[in-house]
Write a structure and sequence with these properties.
α1 (44-64) crosses α4 (125-135), α5 packs across α8 and α8 crosses α9. With 334 residues, this protein is of the alpha+beta class. The protein folds into 2 domains: 1-141 and 289-334, no CATH class; 172-275, no CATH class. The protein contains 12 helices and 11 strands.
Length: 334
């Protein structure tokens, strides 16, 4: 039975935190790759698939952005691979109404290590890339939430082509593209201020709208708007120096918020296809590695589940004391 711990806040309100049972993990296995340690109850084939995707993504991403290597060189990354969403469910963060959040994966990081949790099901491949994109983009911790998630979504569609000779970035996410073509965009003065405690996390549709728009705006600025990438860097410099988000946005992009929203609206509603970009690498990713799983003890399995849960609960406690809601897609430890 799931244990629920009630913690009282100073205001007398209560926050629900989930804790999963620590037992019956005898069918778990582990796998050490060059850069990750995977544990889970997924099948050996599923774990190898996750491992290959992560190693391939890491190699391709660092080939395109070599300066990011310093962000991951000293961090230990453990990947918990559940066999199914049912097994993953007890370890998901709770929404404000006490239900497990509708998430495909979690990324919980400190300055010295990181835990990624997801399932080994094939349809979670984009979630694998999204979560690890946060790890290899550690500088994003000071970025606004929309850009952190927009960048992670942007890189989540990475395609390794010709055995590693080419990498394609920025492939359109069809579900976001189709959703935005029939949705009303969030006004940018509201959108720029959205954080993990926002009311936009109160409903699944609003969450979907936020992540779709975050991806679309990032995609537009990086691939379509003239000088958009340089302007985005300018915006981050202004925000990180203490500037107001809306004022910094207008200064960096030399347009009003309404003007840029109209540009974005035309981008997602009038385009039949969206651009992507190819990088020539020639790094031979077809030989990224072949790893075998080994059975692990129930004690080790429970250790990793406890580590995953402790990070999750620590984040939920911090949200609880501030009265904040939870980010439903990825939660990062302080």
């Amino acid at each position: 039975m799931r244990i629920r711990t009630l913690l009282a806040t100073g205001a007398g309100a209560f926050c629900l935190l989930s804790a999963a049972p620590m037992q019956g993990q005898s069918d778990w296995r582990g796998m050490q790759t060059d850069n990750f340690y995977l544990v889970g109850n997924a099948s050996p084939g599923a774990m190898r698939r996750v491992a290959e995707r992560l190693e391939t993504f890491r190699a391709a991403f660092l080939a395109v952005r070599p300066r990011a290597a310093a962000a991951v060189s000293d961090a230990d990354t453990t990947v918990v691979v559940f066999d199914s969403d049912r097994d993953f469910r007890p370890y998901k963060p709770l929404t404000p109404d006490g239900e497990p959040a509708s998430v495909s994966g979690l990324f919980l990081a400190t300055n010295y290590d990181a835990y990624i949790a997801l399932t080994g099901e094939r349809e979670t491949e984009r979630a694998i890339y999204h979560e690890y994109a946060h790890q290899v983009s550690r500088e994003d911790r000071s970025w606004p939430l929309w850009l952190r998630e927009g960048v992670a979504e942007y890189y989540s569609t990475i395609q390794v082509l010709d055995g590693g000779e080419r990498v394609r970035m920025g492939v359109a996410i069809d579900e976001h593209f189709r959703f935005l073509q029939g949705a009303t965009l969030i006004p940018l003065d509201e959108f720029l201020e959205i954080g993990p405690d926002s009311a936009y996390y109160a409903s699944e549709r609003d969450q979907r709208r936020f992540y779709a728009q975050a991806w679309a705006l990032t995609h537009y600025l990086l691939l379509r708007r003239p000088a958009g990438s340089d302007q985005l860097s300018r915006f981050l410099d202004l925000v990180e120096s203490g500037g107001d988000a809306a004022a910094s946005f207008g200064t960096a992009f030399q347009t009003s918020l309404d003007g840029l929203l109209e540009e974005l609206s035309r981008y997602v509603r009038n385009a039949l296809t969206l651009p992507a970009i190819d990088y020539q690498l020639g790094i031979g990713l077809e030989d990224i590695g072949r790893w075998n799983t080994q059975d692990i003890s129930e004690a080790e399995a429970n250790y990793h589940l406890g580590e995953l849960l402790s990070r999750d609960i620590a984040v939920q406690i911090s949200r609880c004391w501030t009265g904040s809601a939870l980010n439903p897609l990825d939660i990062r430890a302080p």
